[in-house]
Amino acid sequence: MKYTEIMVRYGELSTKGKNRKTFIMQLAQNTRRALSEFPAVRIHADRDRMHLILNGEDSQLIIPKLEKIFGIQNFSPSVQVEKNVEVLKQSVQEIMKEIYTGKETFKINAKRSDHQFELDSNELNQVLGNAVFDVFPEIKAQMKKPDILLRVEIRQDGAYLSYETLKGAMGLPVGTSGKGMLMLSGGIDSPVAGYLAMKRGVEIEAVHFASPPYTSEQALQKAKDLTAKLAPYVGSIQFIEVPFTEIQEEIKKSLPQGYWMTVTRRMMLRLTDAIRAQRKGLVIINGESLGQVASQTLHSMVAINEVTATPIIRPVVTMDKLEIIELAEKIDTFELSVQPFEDCCTIFAPPQPKTRPRVDKVEEYEKRLDIDGMIARSLAGINISQIDSSTPKETLEEEFSDLL
Ligand code: ATP
Ligand code: MG
């Protein structure tokens, strides 16, 4: 039978007290955006669940999109049928004919929110269970952990049947935790960090430092392609390309090489923070993982972090490389990340960066640079593009009628 509706169960947001309404509205909006290719789908969000009325759209195309929306615990595609006992019996039989292979146990789980309906839930379980035995006399019913759990819901607007529950992406709806700037290189770690921040509800904008002609067009494209891999979790992501050539040349020219890396990172952080302030972000997110390279020792982090009081979220900081790679594979960024286009850090990498840079020395060396001027010139040259399409603006009000 063709699915007519998908019933979505909220994740953690159901515990959010008075923020609940905001969370649900954000989730509905994110869902609308993720399903913008399916304009016929109607979204009805109420306090406990969200219903997607498919209006003829193909559930097989919609399900993979839903699986990426944070804030969804799980969802059940379902079929709406007439509220009539005979129709229900036939539909249950039809579904069982489609899915029963001769081996599974089953259970009917009926619920009735329309108390006018002629049978109560116990009676429904009986009658519909018997309808299954009529077509499969040998089938076994099992109350605990049946292989097939056929849910039947009698609601005001119709009867709904479902037998599959698919796992959602969990987390919180993107946008409910505010906005952060993701420092996105072309590597393995930062896209994973972005994914994990979005999972906890953070809306991200990608900040990428490029140093043409030292870094190639392909390296830039790679960062954009990585951003495109993250976009389906939210609909679209702003990609902010920041010119970094002058800064890297100046650092290389004026400072001892042991301090190139630390000062480079401090400049990146200053710039990201300035962009964050302009664009009203709350935090910065990066892909640092403790001890992975010289810039990611605790001493380095302290020396780099010193330029700002803005919180820096480091979602992968305590993860091993292999754990990060596992996630990168899951979100399909790994293949792209290992493409060999060098980024600005690789090209200007000093042979022996300090793993314990001294803050007093860093500050002394930085006096040789026109920090404010370089930052101003870089900011003047940023280039912002939107990766992936966003939703056509629609009025969502009708869809929230139950909430408002
Ligand atoms: P990644 O795999 O994310 O590139 P990495 O292990 O290669 O990380 P580094 O190159 O030391 O680590 O970078 C540490 C973090 O600094 C990155 O995760 C990223 O957040 C930020 N970063 C590095 N290079 C850039 C860049 N060109 N543009 C934006 N952010 C960058
Ligand atoms: Mg890197």
From TrEMBL:
**What biological process terms from GO does the record include?**
thiamine biosynthetic process; thiamine diphosphate biosynthetic process; thiazole biosynthetic process; tRNA 4-thiouridine biosynthesis
Q: What is its EC number?
A: 2.8.1.4
Q: Which UniProt keywords apply?
A: ATP-binding, Cytoplasm, Nucleotide-binding, RNA-binding, Thiamine biosynthesis, Transferase, tRNA-binding
Reaction catalysed? [ThiI sulfur-carrier protein]-S-sulfanyl-L-cysteine + a uridine in tRNA + 2 reduced [2Fe-2S]-[ferredoxin] + ATP + H(+) = [ThiI sulfur-carrier protein]-L-cysteine + a 4-thiouridine in tRNA + 2 oxidized [2Fe-2S]-[ferredoxin] + AMP + diphosphate; [ThiS sulfur-carrier protein]-C-terminal Gly-Gly-AMP + S-sulfanyl-L-cysteinyl-[cysteine desulfurase] + AH2 = [ThiS sulfur-carrier protein]-C-terminal-Gly-aminoethanethioate + L-cysteinyl-[cysteine desulfurase] + A + AMP + 2 H(+)
> Could you tell me which Pfam families the record lists for this protein?
ThiI, ThiI_fer, THUMP
Subcellular location(s): the record lists: Cytoplasm
Task of the protein: Catalyzes the ATP-dependent transfer of a sulfur to tRNA to produce 4-thiouridine in position 8 of tRNAs, which functions as a near-UV photosensor. Also catalyzes the transfer of sulfur to the sulfur carrier protein ThiS, forming ThiS-thiocarboxylate. This is a step in the synthesis of thiazole, in the thiamine biosynthesis pathway. The sulfur is donated as persulfide by IscS.
- Name this protein carries in UniProt: Probable tRNA sulfurtransferase
Q: Which organism is it from?
A: Enterococcus phoeniculicola ATCC BAA-412
> What cellular component GO annotations does this protein have?
cytosol
Q: In which pathway does it act?
A: Cofactor biosynthesis; thiamine diphosphate biosynthesis
Q: Which residues bind ATP?
A: M183, L184, H208, F209, R265, G287, Q296
Tell me the name of the encoding gene. Answer: thiI
Q: Name one GO molecular function term.
A: tRNA binding
- What is this organism's lineage? Bacteria, Bacillati, Bacillota, Bacilli, Lactobacillales
What family is this?
Belongs to the ThiI family.
Q: Which InterPro entries match?
A: Rossmann-like_a/b/a_fold, ThiI_AANH, ThiI_fer, ThiI_N, THUMP_dom, THUMP_ThiI, tRNA_STrfase, tRNA_sulfurtransferase_ThiI
Domain THUMP: start-end pairs: 60-165
Matching entries from Gene3D superfamilies are given as:
3.30.2130.30, HUPs
